Amino acid sequence: xxxxLIVGGVWFLGIAAATLxxxxxxxxxxxxxxxxxxxxxxxxxxxxxxxxxxxxxxxxGHIRFLMEMLRPxxxxxxxxxxxxxxPFDRETRDMVYERAKGTKGDEPFGTERDVNxxxxxxxxxxxxARFADHLDPRVRLGGPDCTQPYEIAMLNVSAMxxxxxxxxxxEALNAGAARGGFAHDTGEGGISPYHLRGGGDLIWxxxxxxxxxxxxxxxxxxxxxxxxxxxxxxxxxSVKLSQGAKPGxxxxxxxxxxxxxxxATRGVPExxxxxxPPAHTAFGTPIEFMGFIATLRRLSGxxxxxxxxxxxxxTEFLSICKxxxxxxxxxxxxxxxxxxxxxxxxxxxxxxxxxxxxxxxxMLVHNSLVGTGLRAQVKIGASGKVxxxxxxxSRVCQGADFTLSARAMMFAVGCIQALKCNTNHCPxxxxxxxxxxxxxxxxxDKTTRVFNFQKATVASxxxxxxxxxxxxxxxxxxxxxNRRIEGQRxxxxxxxxxxxxxxxxxxxxxxxxxxxxxxxxxxxxx
Length: 526
Prior knowledge:
Largest sheet: 8 strands, parallel
Radius of gyration: 25 Å
Distance between the termini: 56 Å
Mean pLDDT: 87
Number of helices: 21
Shape: globular
CATH topology of the largest domain: TIM Barrel
Oligomer: single chain
Number of domains: 2
CATH class of the largest domain: Alpha Beta
CATH superfamily of the largest domain: Aldolase class I
């Protein structure tokens, strides 16, 4: 309410100055023109819906867009003067903004990457390149025990809860998913009305707090789960074992943020701090975990059920594989969350040093499933700083079937990385529960941006695959992704890393896997 009053005050001063110019001294005309121009600009800022920053900060918000006009010079300044600045994040953010606005095109003067740097990666192309003839490829989730399989897109909205994000941000993400035909992961905070309002496909994430399907003691409630999981909007269910931002920690939602709406969504008391346990109480061993997955699949009416984790130890995932083999019950998918991902606030030590990065975690999960003969029935999703077509193609080369993105989707709805997520003072209305700030985020405009970003990014990935001379994503392999390892030496992922053959762990485990395979147990997470 204070912003319209300020703009109104500028109008008052401008009109007063104009009156003085007309009745007393003509020199008042100059401040009158300036004030009335600013008042007109501020009024337009408040009424327009395209830019959240301008709705939140009329007049002053234009400084940000002036800086964007000078972006190349500013970027070069930061690169040269601040070694801790992250050009990757800036370039990625700029690309997402442009793609979401529908303005991303060709760039002049070639690459901004140092192609001679150790770690630089590139994809091979082919002299048999072609035009992509299928710009919206799909991956089927659903094994033999699934009666309602789901065709998931190559890029989807990764887990972000209502509570962490505002109602308007959730609604825009969901409506964008509906328009583009891709999936929206609810995050562990439960299914809110804003997840349903847009009509998008949902992946319902079930965390250790069992929000939306918990009893009074915070344990899993089968009846509540069945009631919500059978909703037509829910296309799949994902059990969250851990997340990239803070693996090994449960979430904490301060009581001040637990509004009536959030309390109703999560099934918790209003105004009371909510702490998620670091581990699940519904199961304690790999065998029990597979039984829990079977229960969720049955209660949901046969929908795909999988799980998400940030990989910790190879023995733990091999223990899950042994649990699948022992029970004959397999998840329909596994989402690998890289430790470098994560949009939520978390302790810095956990963000920087706990959990396996996506590249290593993804290849470990892929190889474990291949080596145990399970890969054909379990699809793999990759989540962690996926923002471009190259990211999608690279992750498929490393073992993924589909991808999910959180941070880039936040950029698409207006996030500017102000790093205020944990303060409730997000300047763009994305990560806040402040009604005034959230209201500034225009759902219709940001819906279009989410749709534009996802569509353009998947189309870019499809064209990259076609430029490699391939018929589709299913033909990608590790030999097609290159990495500079030192000086002038590059190697493909097939050469750098070991890749297991189907069933190899069951028949003749290689020496590098033998001790972990022996230690892994279906009776215990080791």
